[in-house]
Each structure stands twice: as C-alpha cells, then as structure tokens.
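pinning this so it doesn't scroll away 📌
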Amino acid sequence: MAGALETSTHGLELTQGAPESGELAGLIHETARAHQFLGDSELALTLCRQALQMARQVADRKVEADTLITLGIIPSLSTEEAISALEQAIEIGHREKLLTEESRAHNNLGVVVGRNLADVRQARPHYLQAAEIARQIGDLSAELYCYNNVIFVTTLSGDLAEAERMLASGREIYAQLMDPGAAGENYRAEVNHLEHAKGHLDHAAAGRRDLLRQAAEAGSDFDVAGHGPSLGLILIELREYDQAVVVLDEALVSADRAKWLRHFVRSLMATALAGRGQPEQAKVWLAQAEAVLAERPEAWPQLIHHWSRANVQAAGGHWEEAFRTYEEAAEGFAEKGLRPDHARTLSDWAAAHLARGEAGDTDRARQLLGEALAVYHGMGADGYVDRVQGRLAELGD
C-alpha cells in the first residue's frame, strides 16, 4: 500500500492544473484509499470528498461508486453517513452493472453494520453477497477477502463448527491464489480468531504474535491496530497482564494514527491494569476510552466498555456496581448473539464473586460458571470448556 501511495501521489503531482476528468478523480480516490489504509484517515476523508465531487461533475459512475465505498469505512464518518454512502454505492454498482464495486460496497456495509451496530446477523448477508458476486466475476482474491469476513462474524456469533467448515472452503480458494496478499493475511487472521474462540489460548497467542510482527514490519498501522488488541485480549485471558500492557501500549500508537479501534485498545488497557491490581491507573484509561466512545457512540464498543468497566469496578472493590455492570454487559452480548463475549463476561463475573468471598459468593460463582459452560458447550469451544470445568472442580460441591 505504501507503494500505491507513492505512485498515486506522483501521478497527482504530474496532473497539477489538469482539467477535471474521471481519470483525475480516480487518481485522487486511489491516493485517498492509500492514505486510509496507511492510517491517515483525515487526509483520506478530504481527498475522498474531492474525488466524489469531481466524479459526479463528470458523471463517472465507476469512480463515484469506488469513492463512496472508501468513504464508507473512514472511521471519522458518522454511522449514518457511512451506511448512506455504501447503500448509494450498492445502488450504483447494481444499476450500472459494476459488479466489482457492488461486491466491495456490500463488504464494507457489512463492516459498518457489524462494527457500529454490533449486528453480526445483519452484517453476514452483506458479506455473503459480496463473496458471491466476486465468485461470479472470477475474482478469487476478492472472494476470499469477503469470505474471510463471513468467517469473522460467524466466529463472533459462536458458530464455531460452521466457521471451521468455512475455513476449509476458504483454504481451497487460498490455494488457488498465486499471491494471496491482503486476502491471505486476513485468512490467516481468521484461522487464529477461531483458535482463540475455541479457547486454545497459548496457540492463539503465538499465532497472533506472528501476525502482529508481520504487520509491524509492513508498516501498516491499520493492521497493527487490529492485531495488537486481539493479542492483548488473549494475554488478559491468560492472566499475563504485564505482557498485555506492553502489547497494548505499542498498539495504541498505531490505533491513534489509524483512528482504528482506539476505544478497544484503551478498554483492554484498563482491564489489563485492573488485572495487575492497579485500579486507579485503570480508571484513567477507562476515562480515556469513554472520551473516545463519546466522539462516536457505537454499539460494539459500548458493550466492550461495559465489560471493561465491570472489571475495573471489581478491581477497586466496588462489588455491587461491578455485578450490575457485568449483568448489563452479559445481557447486551447475549442480545446481539455474541456468544464468546457473553461467556467471557459470565466467567469474569464469577471471578469477581470469588474475589469478594462473602457468604453466597461461591454458590453464585458456580451458577455463573455453569451458565458460561453451557454457552461454551453450545459453541463447541473445547478449550474454554476444559478451563471452566477446571474452575468448577476447584470449587468442589
């Protein structure tokens, strides 16, 4: 992507003073797209608006659709604006028979619906449609890229058997690609995501470290901002809080530059510090996370925020507040069909009762762990099943 940025920027320099045209609008858009994926979202937004205006003036529908597609995933855009941009791109792509653009617009709309509304059920059909259109036009790389996102939301929903089946199908597409590129990298991330969702935490941590190292070597703030908190969450679950803090601190720089997952990194940092027994420092990070969330309220970050806040409250000994917040988070995850997050929250809630250690807390912890175990059993998350059964065995009858 850095090479694409250099090429498009050089092209813009050569066309300074040129009249408006579809070609120039397209070049401006490609520059915007490169800036977006390298983390400069504000410049990407400015260039996208410039390209969109020019494309409409010269009636270049392909460049108009392409620009709307990129515009829809720029983090600083409101949810309503993003959805509107992507729906317009889908309509243009379908009407003008621009199948590549229609596929990409469906994919990006799935991203926005999943991230901003925490609605994996609504996101999944858009990802599937994107992959199907890519298959119809014979674009294997695009098909795998979109198919990875279907796998992502399938894993988020806890349908791990289906995710595993889909990974096997994705592997067949992957094997046909001479240069898997970004689609291949995302496929490897989904293999790792499934390992995490199954509860194979040590293996998942090792794999995510490799992905994070590769992203850092490639200079992609966007990917570092994605892999860093994913690794941080695994380390928190392994109770390796010191390592989690180091990883999250490094990811924070990329997240802020890319304006991507800024809230997630801060919420996880608060939880890691809470686990390390530093509730006052954790509150500082939680406040930062809340400030980021206030800039652009979104459903999935809000759920994560409840979970993190409960962990910080428990670390500070504010037990009743923590229990109420755990309950709110657990209900929110369950309502959205996010079973891995639901079960994790139940397990943390149980741990808070055991940490308090008052009369009735052990029984309540057993009940919550039993609920978490049922969720993990339903998912087929064998690693988590073993972990929860081990905790229940330690508690005895």
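📌 and the second one:
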Amino acid sequence: MSIQSAIQPIEATLPLLPLAHTTYWDRFVSCVLNDKITPNSPCPRNNTTEVAYLFYGTSFYVLNDRSFLPDFLSRPVGLLFRSDTVNDMNVDTYPFDTGAYLTGRYEPIIGQNPVELDKYVTSSNGVGQAAKLVKLFFHTNDDYLHGQPSRVDDKAQRCVKRVNELHFNKANKNADSRCTAIEVLTTMDISLNKNLEAVIVPKRTFDLESIKIPALEKGLNSKNIKIIKYGDTFRYGPSEDSRIIRELTFQYLMQSPRKYLES
C-alpha cells in the first residue's frame, strides 16, 4: 500500500498554499536574470534525473554552509510561488523532506532506503496532492504551518502510521521541522514571470548588489513581486538562516490569513 492510495478518497477542500524555494544569493541573482529556476539537484529516487525542490506553504530547506565562498554569496533567499505555478507540471509530492530522509534522520521510524520512497511519493499535476496530505496529517493549513500534526485513524495504512509517528516523535533530535514538511519536486523549469509572488532577501546584500546589478531590482519590480528584507549584518549559520526565512514566510502568509488559513 502507499500514501498515494491513502489520500485518493480525500477531498482537497483547504485553501491552496504557495510554494517555497530557498537558495543562495548568487544563485538567486542568476534566477532573476534568467527569469527561471532550473532543476539542478538529484532526484531522491535516482541520481540521473535533476529536479527543483519546492516546499508546500513555507520554507523548510536548510542550506549547506559554504564557508569557502565570500559570505554574501551564501546568504539565503526565499522565493514564494503562486500555488498554480505547477498546475501544468507533473510533480512528485512527499510527506517529509527527502534530503533528511536520505541522510538517516528519520530512523528508526522510517529507514534510509531510496527504494522505499515509492511508498511515500504521490505524483500528479498541481498541488492538490499536497493539500490532501495537509488534510490527512494536520487537518488545517494553520496546524500544518505551525508543525502541529493530528493523529491518524488506527486502521490507517502502515506507511501512513509511520509518517504520523515521525511527526509526533519528539525523542529523535535528528528529526527536526523537516519531518513535517510537504515537499514538491519538479523536473521542469519554473518561470519567475507571473508565478513569483514574493522574495525574502538579505537587506544589506540586496541594497548593495542592486546598485552593481540594476537589472536585479528592476526585474523584480517590473513583475510586481513583493520584496521582503531581513537584516544580514551578522550570520549565525544554516539552521538559523532557515528559521529566519521560515518565520518571514509565515508573516507574509498571515497578511492574508483568510486567503490561506481558513479550513
């Protein structure tokens, strides 16, 4: 049995959430100038296909520490895409962060095995499957965004129970907030034009680099993209960076709570 069959009868009645993508500053500049995100990460089920990683609703991705590069190049940037961005794309959706899964962070509840991922993936166009996963494991968008799962039925499939147990497992320190993430992967380019709602950028870096690269700010303003800035005088490391992006994403969603959080 699989997650795909478990969510089949669920009605996706919740408001659809945007899709979040996190990247480094230097890659963000390239995305804006080229007006697209290009898949460049290995697919978790095989190493031959390249995918773009997105998360449903908010950012969960923790960037690696690139201490070998100038600090400003590694500043994190969050991008928020409209929920209908992948309507015409076949996407793979998972009820957790597959990167953390493949590094053994969910053991012993869910073992580290790429073959086993077939039980947990759902494939379809759009974010409808993601909304069903929220309904199954969290019931409401608000609880999902706050990482507050609900208990599933005792008669649920084994794979569903395992994910649910992972969500509630407070003892495993390795299973951080990424275990409650809903991950959406695509093999197709994602255009920024008409799809990108907002960006979360490091203030000092953005202001200085926009002077050097006028096309950067101009490109965002021409698309009516909301620019959210965070203080970047100091940097505390990848985990703290991830927390900042996630908090600002949530604040952005709360500006229109009736649009995103009604259940």
